[in-house]
């Protein structure tokens, strides 16, 4: 009998333990975890995850939440549960709108439980209290008047008669979906924005910030209720370095040019871009054109040779031809000047002299170092997109000899070469810029990068270039052009294409006082015949 009682007690204990285990397994932890997940998904914009945690979600559930975010202009958002029981609760919405404007509100929701667990019950009021079916939230925007783009003298450039200036300024047009997405809130498709040029690069600065009114609107788009008002901010004018007088002179100098050409003028002591002229329009070859510099690169090679101890009056050979690595290099029209001073070899643009001296005295490493002092292989942060001048590694001495006088794979732009001329004039290379350095770094394509720091040339280099470059105008390749007194420069005839007699681009770079410049004429022939007369006309008009 006693044994039976023990067995019964034991059986009851087992049943009770089993029941306790079942209760533990089936215990309901409540809706907290799933509601927290719902709010976290909302904060990160994962609307698909929100749908999975919603009871009765409509077919356009994701679209509604995305539309609310985009039409209100939400840049950042977070949602925190502030109250919760088994019926529902409340949450705190913390939104940052365009212009770093904060908007907070408290919302409510209901919860329910189905076979998949606890869920938030769908209602438009979950998005915002009092929101009815067919209604939505959006921001009405009022843009301020667009700020002006100005010349260095404060004059507006929008009405400039120069087509090249208009190209720099750039047109306005309606934002595409892609542009609106890149700009982010508060921009929407169809907003008037800068499409190209400075208007594009400094869109946010020039346009300012619109005043915002957050509203509930009906299905017809008409306001039902205003929820929040924010004031706007005026745009800031963009002051450029363009000098209208210098720009006018550049345009006049290009009037009779029949081939594609470009002229860039800088203030040598600062790197400020004073004028940019392109003909014809449609392509900004001044900043984006990539050309072999030809003999204008001899300014850089001469600087490296002088820094290595070569004197302007030192005797060098200028034969009609010279052989480097099995390739014959020759002077223009096979000119043979014999043994002459380095100054005369520079003035007469002796290819054979520079090819020989570069290989025998410089070497690629040293010339690359000096080229970097003149801005080669460095990004140009000018305020607008601009290609960098490149002096790439060469495969052998033959290729290096060619590179030493601006052929081979050496490439540059008129802007870059105007910077070379400015460095020769001033003794310090400044990164060319169209706006101040801080503003240049704010440009869309600058990515926050500021222009290169100035590179000071060695005193002996500046002194030598002030002897060599005037000689080009007084007795060298540009002696017959008729430059104004005080002009210094360098001609360039740069081969491109293939064949025994390939076509050539015509170059002239130089300076007069604090004004430095570069001219290129595509397929123009020789620098002395095609580019130098444009430069002379430009200087006479200043």
Query: What would CATH call the homologous superfamily of the largest domain?
Result: DD-peptidase/beta-lactamase superfamily
CATH arch. level architecture of the largest domain: 3-Layer(aba) Sandwich
Number of helices: 20
Largest sheet: 5 strands, mixed
Say how many strands there are. Answer: 23
Could you tell me the strand content as a percent range? 15-25%
Helix content: 25-40%
- What is the CATH level 1 assignment of the largest domain? Alpha Beta
Tally of individual domains: 3
Distance between the termini: 127 Å
The CATH topology of the largest domain corresponds to Beta-lactamase
Task: Output mean pLDDT.
Answer: 93
Supply the helix-strand structural class: alpha+beta
How are the strands of the biggest sheet laid out side by side?
1-5-4-3-2
What are the low-pLDDT stretches, counting only 5+ consecutive residues below 50? 1-26
Q: Per the principal axes of the C-alpha atoms, what is the gross shape?
A: elongated
Q: Radius of gyration over alpha carbons?
A: 36 Å
Features:
single chain; alpha+beta; Nuclear Transport Factor 2, Chain: A; five-stranded mixed β-sheet; five-stranded antiparallel β-sheet; 35% helix; 25% strand; elongated
Task: Give an overview in words.
With 542 residues, the chain is of the alpha+beta class. The chain has three domains: 102 residues, Nuclear Transport Factor 2, Chain: A (Roll), CATH 3.10.450.100; 90 residues, no CATH class; 297 residues, DD-peptidase/beta-lactamase superfamily (Beta-lactamase). The protein is built from 20 helices and 23 strands. Strands 1-5-4-3-2 form a five-stranded mixed β-sheet. Strands 14-13-23-22-21 form a five-stranded antiparallel β-sheet, with helices on both faces. Strand 22 and strand 23 form a beta hairpin. The protein is elongated. The protein starts with a helix and ends with a helix.
């Amino acid at each position: 009998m006693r044994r039976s009682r023990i067995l019964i007690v034991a059986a009851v204990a087992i049943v009770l333990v089993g029941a306790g285990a079942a209760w533990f397994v089936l215990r309901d932890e409540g809706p907290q975890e799933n509601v927290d997940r719902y709010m976290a998904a909302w904060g990160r914009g994962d609307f698909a995850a929100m749908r999975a945690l919603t009871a009765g979600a409509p077919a356009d559930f994701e679209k509604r939440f995305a539309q609310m975010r985009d039409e209100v202009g939400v840049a950042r958002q977070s949602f925190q549960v502030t109250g919760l029981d088994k019926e529902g609760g409340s949450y705190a919405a913390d939104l940052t709108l365009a212009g770093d404007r904060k908007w907070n509100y408290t919302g409510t929701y209901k919860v329910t439980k189905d076979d998949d667990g606890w869920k938030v019950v769908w209602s438009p009021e979950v998005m915002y209290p009092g929101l009815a079916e067919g209604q939505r939230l959006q921001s009405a925007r009022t843009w301020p008047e667009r700020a002006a783009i100005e010349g260095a003298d404060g004059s507006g450039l929008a009405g400039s008669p120069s087509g090249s200036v208009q190209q720099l300024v750039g047109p306005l047009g309606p934002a595409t979906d892609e542009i609106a997405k890149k700009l982010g809130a508060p921009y929407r498709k169809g907003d008037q924005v800068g499409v190209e040029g400075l208007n594009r690069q400094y869109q946010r600065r020039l346009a300012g910030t619109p005043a915002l009114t957050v509203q509930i609107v009906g299905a017809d788009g008409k306001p039902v209720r205003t929820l929040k008002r924010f004031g706007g901010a005026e745009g800031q004018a963009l002051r450029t370095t363009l000098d209208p007088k210098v720009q006018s002179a550049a345009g006049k100098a290009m009037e009779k040019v029949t081939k594609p050409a470009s002229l860039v003028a800088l203030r040598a002591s600062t790197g400020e871009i004073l004028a940019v002229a392109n003909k014809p329009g449609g392509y900004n070859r001044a900043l984006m054109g990539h050309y072999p510099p030809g003999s204008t690169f001899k300014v850089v090679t001469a600087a490296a040779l002088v820094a290595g101890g070569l004197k302007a009056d030192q005797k060098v050979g200028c034969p009609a031809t010279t052989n480097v690595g099995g390739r014959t290099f020759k002077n223009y029209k096979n000119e043979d000047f014999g043994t002459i001073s380095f100054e005369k070899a520079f003035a007469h643009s002796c290819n054979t002299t520079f090819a020989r001296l570069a290989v025998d005295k410089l070497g690629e490493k040293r010339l690359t170092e000096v080229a970097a002092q003149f801005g080669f292989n460095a990004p140009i942060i000018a305020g607008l997109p601009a290609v960098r001048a490149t002096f790439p590694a060469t495969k052998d001495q033959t290729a290096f000899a060619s590179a030493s006088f601006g052929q081979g794979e050496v490439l540059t732009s008129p802007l870059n070469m105007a910077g070379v001329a400015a460095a020769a004039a001033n003794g310090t290379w400044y990164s060319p810029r169209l706006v101040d350095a801080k503003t240049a770094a704010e440009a869309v394509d600058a990515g926050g990068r500021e222009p290169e720091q100035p590179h000071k040339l060695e005193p002996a280099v500046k002194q030598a270039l002030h002897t060599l470059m005037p000689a080009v105008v007084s007795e060298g390749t540009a002696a017959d052009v008729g430059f104004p007194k005080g002009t210094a420069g360098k001609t360039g005839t740069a081969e491109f294409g293939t064949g025994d007699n390939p076509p050539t681009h015509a170059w002239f770079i130089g300076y007069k006082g604090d004004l430095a410049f570069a001219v290129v004429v595509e397929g123009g022939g020789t620098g002395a015949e095609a580019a130098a007369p444009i430069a002379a006309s430009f200087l006479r008009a200043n």
